[in-house]
Amino acid sequence: MGTVLRVAAHSHNHAHAHTHDGIDWSSRLDSLRQADELDAEARRVVARRLVRVLPDNPTVLDVGCGAGGMSVALVEALSARGGGTVVLVDAVPELLDAATGVARSAATYETDTTTATVRVRPVLADLATERPVEIAGPAQLVWASNVVHHLPDQRAAVAGLVEAVAPGGWLALAEGGLSGKFLPFDVGIGEPGLQERLTAARDQWFVRMRENTAGAVRLHGGWNLALSAAGLVDVTAFSYLVDHPAPPKQAVRDWAVNQLAWFADVAGDALHPADRRTVKQLLDPQDPAFLGLRDDVFLLTANTVHLGRKP
After folding, report:
1. pTM for the predicted model, two decimal places
2. CATH class held by domain 4-309
3. What keywords were assigned to this record (predicted)?
């Protein structure tokens, strides 16, 4: 699961939630944008690596594009090698609009020699009920980051993504890695080791979220097995770091405050009352321990990208 939920989930179980996982994604837009800003440099490297092997003028699908962080990186990477098309797919109109805006701004990205043309095409669609190949395929590269684990049948979702890959093309599935860290081991109040207990509580929440998703099917084993079972070859993976060490810039502190609030929100009763009190202090701008003013906050996370080629 890893960083999965670092950017990608917030559960208030609002009645107006947009997706079947019970998460009100539109309320997460600011947090997603915040995380996109901190992840931007690492994603540019990933995008360049992924498009390097593609044919000229390819079509790239960004499935579950969120606020558009990777969309921008893919547009820039395609611009630098002569152009192409980026198709953005999301089930939440507010997120799709935001992603389309930033991706289209990046599409005029100028290389040293020329302004390459990258077309950006938004598609509003829910992967739980619609087949990617019918809405946007086939594509030479399909990118899906932290989206499949929110769908009821993950194995079927992978098969659906594979269907949208053109023969010889690639599926890049960003899932798992190492859980992100942002707190020192001993924050100076409460019991040391708060980060680990927050992560454990978050993992319990994730299991419950999956259990409460209508029609949920467990995915046994690793993602590489799911890619191979869906008919892909040359299945491999690589991981990339997002590393913002202490002392942090203010954007990292702001992100950490939101992240801690989200952890506390999903942890609920799984967190010991003493830890809940500690969290309350860390989130209180009037408290000396307030996270938003600390110099020992950081962001370190490892994201894994699973790759497979369609024969």
Report:
1. 0.86
2. alpha beta
3. Methyltransferase, S-adenosyl-L-methionine, Transferase
